[in-house]
Amino acid sequence: MRLSRRNPLFAVVLLCAAAVLQAGPTMADSGEAAGSSGEAGTSARVARLFDEAAVATQRYEAGRRAAAAQRTKARRLEKLLARERKHIAALNADLGRIARAQYREGGGVPYTAQMLLAENPEDLMRGRRAAWQADLAVNNAVSRNRRAEARLARDEAKAAAAWRALEEWRTGLGEIKQAIHQKLEEAQWTLQGEADASVSAGACRGTVRLDQPDEGPSSAWVTPVDRYELSAGYGSGGERWVSRHTGQDFAVPIGTPVRAVGAGRVVKVSCGGAFGIQIVVEHADGYYTQYAHLAAVTVDQGDRVTAGQWIGQSGTTGNSTGPHLHFEVRVTPELGSGVDPEPWLRDHGVEL
Q: Are 314 and 320 in contact, with CB atoms under 8 Å apart?
């Protein structure tokens, strides 16, 4: 899916996300395009929200990395504060020693009285110079102490601001991501409800035309969905099937774009029955691929398709216990002629 450039600044993320959450419907969403319908609008909305969720996720990750950097900065400031506190403690100790020394040496006696009481004025003058130097050292120490305390106060404020910014990032980005995913989930189940209604009626709703991805695949063959988890495999058994499983299941959310694995011609689009909404594509090498349990189709029977072209959206129609794509490879367009999809795809350069 299309992803925007990363931007770690929280303010930019917040503005972009606000635009996403407040944006009005597109033409496909609002029914302004010729021949569009409520069902087509839902399909387009789900596709768009998938794209926006991907954008939000990338920005969330960029913000998370920025927050980690901010955390490192805050910890560096805390180490600096610890060093400054030790330095101030040392300065205070020095001031205490100087003050005690002055007290012991009569620093509190007026200079005129010291002159009258002195037995040797020259010794007194030398002592006075020493006292003056001690006073200068005290003044310098006091100035250093005050500067260090002011710097400590500034750095403590910076550290506190860094931690506040970190918490704002965490809270704000999390709320943005959650809001978009909540909208997506609502649209997904609306789409699934519309698909279930058409299957129950035994008539496929109209073809939905969705914007194709900006960039085509770099190879002649691709996986039927971009991001997925493999679930039931070919030949596996279970309570859901009377006999062995005839294809490979890809666990994906409702509304995930389903791609033609290779170039070919759509020979079947149907609704109802165990497979729910399904598409069968014939390829040049004589094999057929089936895409079942869909929530929507974006092609018509007889259409030519290319590798990676979006031909439908995943769902959970028909005999399905949860959202997934059922994918088969067959030697005929009909059920019962399936081969194991995984080695077939591997022979075409595609690893699952």
A: no
